[in-house]
Design goal:
mainly alpha
Length: about 110
């Protein structure tokens, strides 16, 4: 249930506010991973900030499925994961608060 809620919320957010890069770091990372940052150079996993293992995994994804923007997928995945964790924590807090309120109402 919570997975469906997160996916729907992310889709609505993405539709209303398209993803955009706030700094040039993301543009540089995406260009390095796609091989478009330095003319004549192939894609490489050694990007500016991400771990090399993540970089090479994203390059491999791009080699298998060229139409996917791997860096955008990774950033959106991290955002969705964080959003899901936040909703889980809020849900647990609400359940705990509801439990405490119902106990107070039942006690004499």
């Amino acid at each position: 249930m919570s997975s469906v809620l997160v996916v729907c919320a992310m889709a609505a957010l993405w539709a209303s506010i398209p993803p955009a890069y706030d700094t040039n770091d993301d543009v540089t990372i995406r260009g390095v991973l796609e091989g478009t940052r330095v003319p004549g150079q192939p894609p490489t996993g050694f990007a500016l900030l991400p771990h090399a293992a993540l970089g090479w995994a994203l390059v491999a994804i791009r080699d298998v499925w060229p139409s996917v923007y791997a860096w955008d997928l990774a950033v959106t995945g991290a955002l969705a994961w964080g959003f899901a964790v936040f909703l889980t924590l809020v849900w647990a807090l609400l359940v705990r608060a509801r439990c405490c309120v119902s106990r107070r109402l039942r006690s004499p």
